[in-house]
Each structure stands twice: as structure tokens, then as C-alpha cells.
Inverse folding.
């Protein structure tokens, strides 16, 4: 879903700019601290109305400003006959206003279906090497992108979980039986959707990972739910009742999908426990690629047309050796598939090796963008 | 102007009123007859002294018991449990229901520290037990809490709390709205509609 034109005003270190972006691959070149990642962040905020770097919108304001504006014209594909416009206006102390065309959106969930983005950034390393919670976050994000209703189920589950934990803390045992019914209902929905997602990752991840890593043996991802996948509604309710005393003692819900685990498995062992930093970094990158492929596949099933999310790659190639970088690039969806990818590079990186005539190259300096006419 | 600002600042504390609407009201009051402003001020002043909670159902009333509770024509064997007094007015406006009401005064919400003791659940049990010894015992309790996490938790709790009483417990149907379109229904609404489907 390519952006054709982007307008940014008072966002981070970008004072004001209008940038035509109608290329399938856009390279941003610049030293550290010049505004490359800020530009990726602006595109991401346009896609989701929130940042991947901060939860506080005021952090996105340019120093000394009390409002920022982002606006973009985008198409379903490069050859689509018409453009859509989206904009986001934030004023300090007020609610941000997100518009899709003339319509004001009230729930960010609506944006996910319109023009999603997949960002590859340094923090993704946590998906492979971090706590189980970080992996759950990634897979929840994936499921929400593939099945919009998953976002509602997850929100409901989290709310019931908070109520349940509050009841456990205050020792209101008499409420637990009622809460457990909803806890189980939403929890089972989550568990079943996650299991569907696991099947899709099984189909792609091992092959994609091996294509770049060349380990010779497959690395897979196992979904290990806290409750047994074969359990019935009544069996889970009985399990919760049986373990209630322990939950009350520790004042928290010790089982449920908030405790599910996703584990990288290589030759029947936990891969994350012995893999190298480079191998784990690659695993996190491949997770993102699979996420983009699965979205395109789901869109093809739904609309008959393959539609990729916008890909934002922030300095992610730095930690891969030369041959892996090349193979990683080969794994990205082909530009002919109407996918738009925006990369950041340091000027000394061999970015020319990955560019072709259609690549748009922008030099970034102090929040200003200059197009490189010849590459 | 101080007088206008003070009025606007009070009005904006009311639900659904922003500064713009509050200013519009203030200017309208300045233009209106003095008698209108005085009547409005008097009505607001006497509202809290003339409107009370019904000692039987907990709804708003100027007489005690309220008009519904004291109406001999109502079906006294059915009680509809609602979250707040406004819900009684909403259901009454439908002219579809002829039974009695019971206002809980909120919903169970452990996160906000609202447990069963903070709601009128014990008075509901007492009402059912007292009516059991009369010629018109309560046979059905209709739970009409909103289909939210808190509304559902309250409904499930009431179901359990009333288990020992000889009453049928029902819940308002939820799902596709009248005149709605399946195509636009979200998954949770559809799932609820399927769970609550009825034979034709």
C-alpha cells in the first residue's frame, strides 16, 4: 500500500517537508541523529496513529512546538486508479484527530485494516531473545493484523484479566466464579486464534529462516498455551476452580493466555538458549517478513489481490554479515508486487548493492531531505 | 466576563456538555425572559428535594413507593434488574414490559473496588424471599444489564446468587440490531447472536 506523497510538520526534528514517495524502494541515507528514523516513525504513526518508539504523543512534538501534522496520499497499489488521503493532527493536551479521507476515525483498530505497516527495528530483537511477553506481543500484533476481530477479543480478555486480578488481590472469592466464565470464554477464543496463527508460521518461518541462515536444519516456532488446546470450556473452568486457592494465595492469575509461550525450536531444543546474537537478530527479522507475507496472503484470499503492508526497515541490516544481507534482501517481497519498503542506511554502508534504477534515494541532514538524482 | 465564565465552568461539569455548548446555553439564558431563568433555577434547586429513590425498587420517584411499584395493574411476578434508574425510564418508554423493576445502582467492577456489597443485591434477594410468601410470588428475574464485561459479570454473579431461589432467570437478548445488517456486524456481536439464537 504505497505512499505517494507525505507532508510532515513539526514532527521530532522535521520542521516541515513535502516528500514525493512514489517508489517501491526508498533509501534514506544519513549519519546518526539526522532524522531517518523520525521519518520512518512519521510513516508508522500515519499507519497506526501511534509510535513504535514511545507511548507519549507529546514526545513526537518538535522542540518548542505545541502541535504536529502528518498527511499522506496513498494508493492500494502503484497502478490503482485513485488515491486516498490520511492525516493525523496532534495538539498538546488534546486528543489526536485521525482522518481517513474526510472521515474522522475514533478507534485505532480501523486503521489496521486500511494501511498497515510492518516495522523492522532494533527493539524487535526482543521477539527472539527477550521475555515471553515480548514474543506474545509480536504474535498478538500479527493476529490483529490478520483477523481484525482478534483485537476486540484481546481487549476483552485483558479487561477481564484485570478484574480477575483485582478480585484476587482484594480476596473477593465470591466474584471469581462469574469472572472465570468470561475469562475462559475470551481466553479460549484467543488460544484458538493463536493456534491458527502458529500453523501459518509453521508453514513459512522454517523455510524463510533457512533461506538466509543456511543452518541446514530447520528452526521452528512452537505455540505452547498455558491451558491445554484440547480442553473443553467446562474442563478449563474446572481447572481454574481447582487452582483458585493458589491464585488467591499469590493474588494473581497464574494460568491463561497471558501466560502462553512461543518458543523457537531447533533440533528439539530451545533455540534462543544457545543461538548466537546474529542468529537471533535474523530470527526477529524473519518473523517480520513472515508477518508481511501472511498479511498479503490473507488479503489475497479476502479480496483476490495480493496487498502488502508498508515495510519500514530501520538500520536492521547492520548486524548481518554481507552474504546474509544479500539473502535477506532476496527474501523481501519483489518490488513488482506493488510493495513499498523504506530503508535507512548510514552513508558508508554498501547501499548501492541493493539499489536499482527505480530506487528513490533521499539524503537526510538535520531533518531535511534531498533527493539523490543519480545513484 | 466573570458571571458567564463561572456559569460555563459549572455547566461543563455536566455529562455531554463541552465549553461551546455551555457558552451557547449561557447566551441563550441571557436572551431569555427573566421568568424562564427563574423557573429553571427553581426547578434545579428543588430537583434534589422532590426526587428520591423508591424504597422498593431503587428507581427515581417523587412518591414512595414509585408509580410502577404502586401500580396494581403491573405484573408483580416478574422483576427486571437494571444498572441505574435511567434504564427504567428507557425500558418504560418501549411500552413492551409490564413487570416491576429493581435498580442495582451500578455494576460489579473489582478494578474500581465495586463488589456485591456496594450494589442492591441483598435487597433484591430480600424482595424475592418476601414475595414468596404472598399470593404473587416473583417467578422470573430478567437481567437487563448492558452486554459489557462488567454487565456480563454482574449478570453471571446474579445468576449464581439467585440459584437457590425458585425463580427463572432470564437475560435480555443481545445481537444483531433490528434493521441491522449481518455484513456490518462485528464478530463478537455475531458470536453473541448465535449463542442467543431462538427457535422460530
Amino acid at each position: 500500500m504505497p505512499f505517494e506523497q507525505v507532508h510532515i510538520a513539526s514532527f521530532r526534528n522535521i520542521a516541515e517537508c513535502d516528500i514525493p514517495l512514489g517508489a517501491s524502494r526508498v533509501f534514506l541515507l544519513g549519519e546518526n541523529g539526522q532524522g531517518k528514523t523520525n521519518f520512518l516513525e512519521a510513516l508508522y504513526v500515519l499507519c497506526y496513529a501511534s509510535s513504535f518508539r514511545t507511548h507519549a504523543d507529546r514526545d513526537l512534538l518538535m522542540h518548542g512546538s505545541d502541535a504536529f501534522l502528518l498527511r499522506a496520499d496513498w494508493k492500494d497499489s502503484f497502478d490503482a486508479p485513485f488515491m486516498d488521503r490520511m492525516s493525523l493532527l496532534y495538539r498538546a493536551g488534546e486528543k489526536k484527530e485521525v482522518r481517513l479521507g474526510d472521515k474522522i476515525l475514533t478507534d485505532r483498530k480501523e486503521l489496521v485494516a486500511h494501511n498497515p505497516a510492518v516495522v523492522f527495528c532494533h527493539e524487535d530483537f526482543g521477539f527472539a531473545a527477550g521475555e515471553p511477553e515480548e514474543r506474545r506481543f509480536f504474535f498478538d500484533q500479527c493476529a490483529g493484523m490478520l483477523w481484525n476481530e482478534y483485537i476486540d477479543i484481546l481487549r476483552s480478555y485483558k479487561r477481564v484479566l484485570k478484574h480477575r486480578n483485582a478480585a484476587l488481590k482484594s480476596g473477593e472469592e465470591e466474584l471469581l466464579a462469574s469472572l472465570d466464565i468470561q475469562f475462559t470464554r475470551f481466553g479460549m477464543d484467543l488460544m484458538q486464534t493463536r493456534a491458527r496463527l502458529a500453523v501459518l508460521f509453521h508453514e513459512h518461518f522454517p523455510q524463510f529462516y533457512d533461506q538466509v541462515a543456511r543452518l541446514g536444519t530447520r528452526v521452528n516456532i512452537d505455540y505452547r498455551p498455558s491451558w491445554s488446546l484440547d480442553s473443553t470450556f467446562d474442563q478449563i473452568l474446572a481447572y481454574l476452580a481447582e487452582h483458585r486457592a493458589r491464585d488467591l494465595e499469590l493474588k494473581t492469575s497464574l494460568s491463561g493466555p497471558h501466560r502462553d509461550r512461543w518458543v523457537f525450536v531447533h533440533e528439539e531444543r530451545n533455540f534462543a538458549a544457545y543461538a548466537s546474537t546474529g542468529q537471533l537478530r535474523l530470527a526477529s527479522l524473519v518473523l517480520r517478513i513472515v508477518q508481511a507475507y501472511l498479511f498479503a496472503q490473507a488479503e489475497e484470499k479476502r479480496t483476490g489481490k495480493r496487498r502488502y503492508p508498508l515495510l519500514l526497515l530501520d538500520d536492521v541490516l547492520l548486524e548481518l554479515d554481507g552474504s546474509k544481507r544479500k539473502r535477506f534482501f532476496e527474501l523481501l517481497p519483489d518490488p513488482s508486487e506493488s510493495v513499498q519498503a523504506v530503508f535507512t542506511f548510514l552513508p558508508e554502508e554498501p547501499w548501492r548493492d541493493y539499489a536499482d534504477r527505480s530506487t528513490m534515494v533521499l539524503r537526510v541532514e538535520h531533518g531535511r531531505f534531498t533527493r539523490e538524482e543519480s545513484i | 466576563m466573570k458571571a458567564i465564565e463561572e456559569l460555563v465552568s459549572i455547566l461543563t461539569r455536566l455529562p455531554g456538555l463541552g465549553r461551546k455548548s455551555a457558552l451557547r446555553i449561557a447566551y441563550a439564558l441571557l436572551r431569555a425572559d427573566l421568568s424562564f431563568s427563574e423557573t429553571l433555577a427553581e426547578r434545579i434547586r428543588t430537583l434534589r428535594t422532590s426526587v428520591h429513590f423508591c424504597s422498593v425498587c431503587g428507581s427515581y420517584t417523587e412518591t414512595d413507593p414509585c408509580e410502577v411499584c404502586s401500580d396494581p395493574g403491573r405484573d408483580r411476578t416478574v422483576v427486571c434488574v437494571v444498572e441505574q434508574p435511567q434504564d427504567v425510564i428507557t425500558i418504560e418508554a418501549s411500552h413492551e414490559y409490564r413487570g416491576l423493576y429493581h435498580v442495582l445502582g451500578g455494576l460489579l467492577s473489582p478494578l474500581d473496588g465495586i463488589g456485591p456489597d456496594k450494589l442492591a443485591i441483598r435487597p433484591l434477594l430480600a424482595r424475592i424471599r418476601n414475595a414468596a410468601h404472598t399470593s404473587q410470588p416473583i417467578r422470573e428475574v430478567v437481567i437487563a444489564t448492558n452486554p459489557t464485561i462488567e454487565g456480563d459479570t454482574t449478570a453471571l454473579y446474579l445468576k449464581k446468587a439467585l440459584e437457590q431461589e425458585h425463580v427463572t432467570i432470564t437475560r435480555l437478548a443481545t445481537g444483531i440490531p433490528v434493521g441491522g445488517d449481518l455484513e456490518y456486524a462485528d464478530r463478537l456481536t455475531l458470536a453473541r447472536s448465535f449463542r442467543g439464537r431462538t427457535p422460530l
Q: What stands out?
A: The longest helix of chain B spans residues 34-50.
